[in-house]
Amino acid sequence: MAKIEISRENQLHVIKEKIWTKDFILICIANLFIFLAFQITLPTIPLFVTHLGGNEQFIGFIIGVFTFSALLIRPFAGHALETKGRRFVFLTGLVIFIFSLGSYSVTTSILFLFIMRIIQGVGWGLSTTASGTIVTDIIPASRRGEGIGYFGLSGNIALAVGPSLGLLLIDQISYFWLFILCSCFCILALTLASFVTYKKPVEYQIRVKWDLYEKEALDPSILALFITATFGGIASFLPLYTVQKGVEGIHWYFIIYALSLMVTRLFAGQLYDRKGHRFVFLPGASLIFIAMLLLAWMANSAVLYLAAICYGVGFGTVQPALQAWAVERSPKNRRGMANATFFSFFDLGIGCGAILFGQIGYWIGYTSIYVTSACSVLITVFYYFMILRKEKTTSRK
Predict the structure, then answer these.
(1) Are the C-beta atoms of 19 and 146 separated by less than 8 Å?
(2) CB count, 10 Å around CB of 76?
(3) How far apart are CA 271 and CA 289, in angstroms?
(4) Distance between CA atoms of residues 377 and 383, nearest Å
(5) Which of 67, 233, 370, 383 is 20 to 30 Å from 85 at the Cα level?
(6) pTM attached to this predicted model
(7) What confidence tens digit (pLDDT) does each residue in 294-344 have?
């Protein structure tokens, strides 16, 4: 009988610790539609700017203002998550995102598009910061790394499908219907999000007058900044670099990268939950470092595809681990601000990476972008060892 009772207790424990609940599935599907709308517009917005009469300079401003708008709103989103609640911030962000996307369908001037991109960045910053926090509320603490990895799959599927779908659609339909379709995807996300049961945040206490970040989440967030800077160099300049090198298959690079990312997330989160960041971060960072060297060399398409695998596995290992680590280090009543801090540094890395590497590529050449990216990874590893040393010293006291 004792064995039976223990077995029943274990069964109850397993039930309590399950990840795939109704709320988790709803938030994952909603996130898929949000990211699908975003990824469809990623390659088509530059074409739309050209359609409106803009040049490469205008394209840079239109793309960049979105990133920095999202970056600036994230700290305020984190504060609102703890004071106004998860539902309010998430649904508000989605409504703003839907409004801005829909407005593109009637845009006839670059100035109006520029303003709407700022508004879209606000909606993106609010909704993605909220969804990341909601997921950490829903996922059991013992399986947080695994759950965040699964949640990230929704964005990875959109990454694998969205850009190609956007380019395919723009050959078949007008910009008006393209942006209306993207708005409809976000309306579906809003509908699903309205059925999620949101946990009430723990009583919030403002630590300082300007509460813009979570101190305990800074170290993992800084690591994320140097890692995501490499993505800024890839997303912005790799297509031009392959043309310069005469290497074909850039579309396959992003597909292979997305698939590698998806597969990795199926097991990397579980490894983090069982072993911790020490068993996850260094192998992942090493693969990203190798990917950067392969891109700097890039003798042929095979090297390009191998770099895609290394980068996908490396990034898919490191990103959810750093996010879970940032949340775990922070107090329970600061999860919203912890996620806001993490994603702010995440955005900052991509934005600054694109700007910095653009200057490096202009002055020295595209190859130097990926050599510099490899150096950025080395800085990350060096800083990681500094964190370990600091934690070791603290534990002795």
Answers:
(1) yes
(2) 17
(3) 21
(4) 10
(5) 67
(6) 0.75
(7) 999 999 999 999 999 999 999 989 988 898 899 888 888 787 788 888 988
